[in-house]
Amino acid sequence: MERSKLIVLATFNNPHDAHLLKARLEDHGIKAIVGNENSTAIMGATIAGPSSAFWIEVLILESDAQAALPIKDAYNSGTKETFEEIGEWVCDCGETVDAGFAVCWNCERSYSQVQ
Q: Fewer CB atoms inside 10 A, N or C side of the chain?
């Protein structure tokens, strides 16, 4: 049985963007994990000034990399949901999600999946 390893697809300095990319990947059938989410509380200093010692990572299976790269590129090119335009919505799981949020807090389904 061949095993595929996890690789870092993208890094972010906030969990919001990482979870949005994760949801976008999962919309396309690619399993993803957000890593280092709780590590950003560790702050350090560099020559350039204060910075987070850790980046929040979106990890995928290496075997999914070819399919995931165009999704990541589209996400980074500004095709993200415009949060100011998203009003209150009801997720398929039944939760009411407040205006401005593109991901359900209960099941992590993205707004674009429900529409």
A: N
